[in-house]
Amino acid sequence: MIQRFDRSDRRILKYPAVHPCEGITPATLLGSLITLSQTICNHHSKPLATQRKNARETIRQIGILLLFFQEIRDLGLNLPSSIVLCFSELHFSFQKIQFLLEDCTREGARVWMLMKAHMVATQFRVSIRSVATALDVLPLGLLDVSHEVRELVEMVANQARKAKLELDPDDESAMNSVILIMNQFENTFEPSPSVIKQVLDHLDIKSWIDCQNEIRFLDEEMGLECVDGNEREIPLLSSLIGFMSYCRGVLFEDSDIGNIDDKSEGRRSTEMLNCLNLEDFRCPISLELMTDPVTVSTGQTYDRVSIQKWLKAGNLLCPKTGEVLATTELVPNSALRKLIHQLCADHGVSMAKSKSKNRDISRTIIPGSPVAAEAIRFLCIFLAGRLHYGTDDQRYKAAYEVRILGKSNIFNRSCLIESGTIPPLLTLLTSMNPSLQENAIAALLKLSKHPNGQKIVVHNGGLSIIVTVLKDGLKLEARQIAAATIFYLSSVYKYRILIGRIPEAIPALVELIKDGTSYGKKNALVAIFALLLYPRNHQIVHAAGIVPILVDLLASSHETDLIADALAVLATLADRVDESTSLQNASFLALVIRILQSSSMSRGGKEYCVSILLSLCNNCGKDVVAFLAKDSSFMASLYSMLTDGTAHASKKARSLIRIIHKFHETSSSHMLTKEGPNFHEHRVRL
Fold it and tell me: How many CB atoms lie within 10 A of CB 59?
C-alpha cells in the first residue's frame, strides 16, 4: 500500500516522504510513480517566484523518466524484485521533489521561500542526487524497453549525477536586498522605495492583495511555530510581516482593494458584525483566557490567579498602565465572566482547555523583532498623514489599513494610537461616504480595545460622534460596529456614566436590537449589559422600552446565543425591585420556564432563567411564587440544575426550591388551620 502523498496538512519546508511498503504489487508501484511524475510535470505551468532554474531542470528530468514508466506500463512488462526496489527509492525521492515544487509555487509564501533559498536549493540538489543513485543501480538490462527510452534514462542518470543545482544569482541578489532593507528598518532608516520595488518585482508581488497573501501566510506560519514551541524563526517571520505590511500600506496605496471587499464580503461581514471574540478576553499578565476576571483600582481587568501572584510578589503597580494601585482589593467582574463563558459556549471552547489553545494574541503585545517594530512605526506615521491630509480615496485606504493592522495585534494598536490616527478617524465618522464611514468606525473599534485608545477617543469628544453613527449610520454595518465600540468603551466605569448621559445612546442600542442582524443585536445586547453595570443606567434602559422588545426576541428567536444574551440583560433588570414589576405577568413567566426546560438552551442561558425567576420571587412576592408552584415540571428543571449547573446556578436553584417548598408548607398549614374546626365539628356530629 502507498500512503497518500498530497498531504494538505503538511507544513512548508517539511518533507514527510514515506517508502512504499514491502508487500506492494509492482503494478501499483508503477501506477503511483506515473501519477507522481505527472503531478511534478504539471508544475511546469505554475508561476515560480524563486528556484526557477532548479525547478525547470528537475521537472525536465522527471518528464523524461515519465516516458520510461509509461512505456513499461504500456508493454505490460514484468518487474523483477531488483527493479521494484529501485522504483521504491525513486518513489521516495519523487515525493520530496513534489513537496519542494509545491512549496516553490505556494501562494503567499514567496518572500519566505526567498529567505530560505539556500536551504531549498540544497534540497533540490539532494533530491536529484538521490534519483541519480537509484538510477545508477537500476538494472536496465532486465527491462525490454526501446533503445531510445533506454538512452534517455541513461542520459538522465548521468545528468542527475553531475547536476549543479545551486542558488540562482537573481534569488541571492533579491535575498540580500531584503536583508539590507530589514537592516535599514532596524536602524530606524526608511528604505528606498526603488530598492523595495526591485525585490517585489523579482517575486512578482504586484498588488495589495499579493502583499496581503504574503502577510497571511507568514502570520499563520508564526502561529504554527508558537504552537510547536519553536521560537527560533519568530524574529525572521515577524520582520517579514512588518516589511510586507509596510509594502502593502505604503507602496500599494493606489492598488485596488475593491476586489478584496467583493471576494470576501461574507467573511468580512462576519468579521465586522461578530466583533467580539475570545482573543479580546485574555489576561494581560498570563495571556490566557480569563476564567475569573477581576478589576483592580485602575479599572484594568486581569485573571484572579495572575493578579494575585503579581501582588504577592510585592508589585504594587498596575501591570498594564504602570499606575500605583490605590488598593489591592480585587473586584469580581461578573459581567465579563458571564460574557466570556457565553462566548466560549458559542465558539465551542472548553474553559478548562483554554490554556492549551494557540496563544495568537500573546506574541502581539511586543513586536517579534526590532525590524517589525520600526517597519510598523513607519507605516503608522504614513497612515496618520494620509488620514489627516489625503484625498478621500487615500483616507479610505488608510482607514482600511488601520482596521486590518489593529484587528488582532496589540503592538500595532499601540503604534497606531501613538501616531495620532484616532482624531482623523473620528472626523471621518461624519463623512457622507458610507464605505469610508464604515471603515473609520471599524478602525476605531480595534483601537478602542486599547486603554490609551479609549482615553483618546473620549478626550476628543468621540463618544457623541460614535453614538451618532450608532443612531444614524449610513449603513447598518456601521451602526452594528458602533454598538461593539460602545461595548469596549463601556469597560471603563467612568465611560459607562458618560455614555449613559448621552440621551440618544441607550435608545439607539435598543433600536438596534429591533433592526439589526443577529450579530448586530448581539453587539447591542452586550453593550447594554455593560452599561447596566452603572446603576443609574438601569432606569434609562428600562425607559427606552427594552423589556417588551427582549420578551418578543425570546419568543421569536431560534438562536440560543442571542436568547442567552437577552436573558442576561433581563436578569440584570429583574434584580431591581422597581424594574422587576414589568416582568410580573403569567405569559412572561411561562416563556422563561419553557426556555429553562428547552434541551437546546445553553447552561449559561438556563442560569439566567433561574436568576430571573429568583429575582421576581424575591421582588414581586407570592403571586410569582404561586404561579411557579403550580407547574410540577418546573421543580424537576430546578433539581436538574443542582447537578448539571455551575456552582453559582446551583446556589440560585437551591434558593428557588426553598422558596417554593416554603410556599407549599405555608399553604398547607393555612389550609389545615382553615379546615381544622370543621373537621372536628364533623367528627362530633358523627
Answer: 18
Q: How many CA atoms lie within 13 A of 384 on its CB side?
A: 16
Instruction: Say which residues have a Cβ less than 8 Å from residue 384's Cβ, sequence separation at least 6.
Output: 416, 419, 420, 421, 424
pLDDT in tens, 150-204: 999 999 999 988 888 889 999 999 999 999 999 999 999 999 999 999 999 999 9
The candidate with the shortest Cα–Cα distance to 304, out of 289, 324, 322, is: 289
Instruction: Enumerate long-range contacts of 489-492, CB under 8 Å, 24 or more apart.
Output: 489/448, 489/454, 489/457, 489/458, 489/463, 490/527, 490/530, 490/531, 490/533, 491/301, 491/336, 491/454, 491/530, 492/299, 492/451, 492/454
- For 639-655, b/e burial (b = at least 16 CB within 10 A) is eebeeebeeebbebbee
The CA dihedral of 545, 564, 625, 582, to the nearest 10 degrees, is: 0
Angle at the Cα of 411 from the Cα atoms of 405 and 417, rounded to 5 degrees: 75
At residue 278's C-alpha, the angle toward residues 574 and 469, to 5°, is 70
Cell numbers linked to 485: 465600540
**C-alpha dihedral, 258 to 263 to 264 to 269, nearest 10°:** 70
- The closest alpha carbon to 533, from 582, 505, 494, 483, belongs to 494
Portion of the chain with pLDDT greater than 70, in percent: 88
Considering only residues 670 and 562, tell me which one the structure prediction assigns the higher pLDDT: 562
What CA–CA distance (Å, rounded) separates 636 from 543?
36
Interatomic CA distance for residues 601 and 564, integer angstroms: 8
Q: What pTM was estimated for this model as a whole?
A: 0.79
Residues 297 and 277: beta-carbon distance below 8 Å: no
Collapsing DSSP states into helix, strand and coil, what is residue 390? coil
| 289 phi, psi to nearest 5 deg | -60, 130
Task: Round to whole Å and give the CA distance between 384 and 405.
Answer: 13
* Burial category of 271 from C-beta neighbours within 10 Å (exposed 0-12, middle 13-18, buried 19 and up): middle
- Provide the residue type at 630 as one letter: K
- In the sheet with 293-295, reading across from the earlier edge strand, the strands are 301-303, 293-295, 331-332
User: Helix (H) and strand (E) counts for the chain?
Assistant: 34, 3
Question: Collapsing DSSP states into helix, strand and coil, what is residue 250?
Answer: helix
**Which residue is associated with the grid cell 473586584?**
331
User: pLDDT tens for residues 222-237?
Assistant: 888 876 777 889 999 9
CA dihedral 379, 381, 387, 393 (to 10 degrees): -30
Of the candidates 319, 116, 356, the one whose C-alpha atom is nearest the C-alpha of residue 221 is: 116
Place of cell 415540571: 633
- Cα-Cα-Cα-Cα dihedral sign, residues 560, 562, 566, 572: positive
User: Which residue, chain included where needed, has cell 389550609?
Assistant: 671
Pick the closest to residue 291 from 235, 333, 257 (CA basis): 333
Distance CA(483)–CA(231), nearest Å, equals 38
Q: Residue for cell digits 524574529?
A: 235
Structure confidence by residue, pLDDT tens digits, 593-650: 999 998 888 888 899 999 999 999 998 888 888 888 888 888 888 888 888 877 888 8
* Number of neighbours of residue 201 by Cβ within 10 angstroms: 11
Residue type, 587: S
Distance CA(303)–CA(419), nearest Å, equals 30
- Per this entry, what is the length of the chain? 686
Q: Give the residue among 519, 583, 576, 594 at the shortest CA–CA distance from 546.
A: 583
Query: How far is it, in rounded angstroms, from Cα 442 to Cα 399?
Result: 8
Residue 293: enclosing H or E segment and its boundaries? strand 293-295
Q: Quote the CA–CA distance of 262 and 258 in Å, as a whole number.
A: 6
